[in-house]
Amino acid sequence: MTQRAEGRSGQGIVVRLYVAIVVLAGVMGFVLGSIRPENLQPRLFGVLALPPTPLGVAIYGLVTVGVGLGALLALVMYVSARFDDAAAN
């Protein structure tokens, strides 16, 4: 028989960490866009050109990091759900 640990779940902590990292990427993008370095031309996934403004670079950071880490997080959650099911049988 397995006992559930009291307190926060590991999945909830990982999701909160994911959200914090994505928000941090957006904030850093805004700061970088505010500095306005030369040749700053953000292209979302190499296709959609975004304006080199603080908001454009923040969106670039949010979406790029969000999708990249989100895909990895979804894969880990999928594998962990399958592993738990296999271990229970």
How does the SSE layout of this entry go?
Blueprint: H1 10-35, E1 43-44, E2 48-49, H2 54-88
Antiparallel strand pairs: 1-2
Helix pairs in contact: 1-2
State the gist of this model:
The chain has 89 residues and is mostly helical. It has two helices and two strands. α1 runs antiparallel to α2 (54-88).
Structure, described:
It is a single chain. The chain is mostly helical and 89 residues long. The protein has one domain. It contains two helices and two strands; from the N terminus they run αββα. The protein has helices at residues 10-35, 54-88; strands at 43-44, 48-49. Strands 1-2 form a two-stranded antiparallel sheet. Helix 1 packs antiparallel against helix 2 (54-88).
How much of the sequence is in beta strands?
A: under 5%
Indicate how many domains the architecture comprises.
Answer: 1
Average pLDDT value?
83
Number of H- or I-type helical stretches: 2
- Compressed to H and E, one letter per element, the order equals HEEH
Give the beta-strand count. Answer: 2
Derived from helix and strand composition plus strand pairing, the structural class reads mainly alpha
The profile of the biggest β sheet is: 2 strands, antiparallel
Radius of gyration: 18 Å
Question: In order across it, which strands form the biggest sheet?
Answer: 1-2
User: What's the overall geometry?
Assistant: elongated
Query: How far apart, in Å, are the first and last alpha carbons?
Result: 13 Å
Taking pLDDT < 50 over at least 5 consecutive residues as the criterion, the unreliable ranges are none
Helical fraction equals: 55-70%
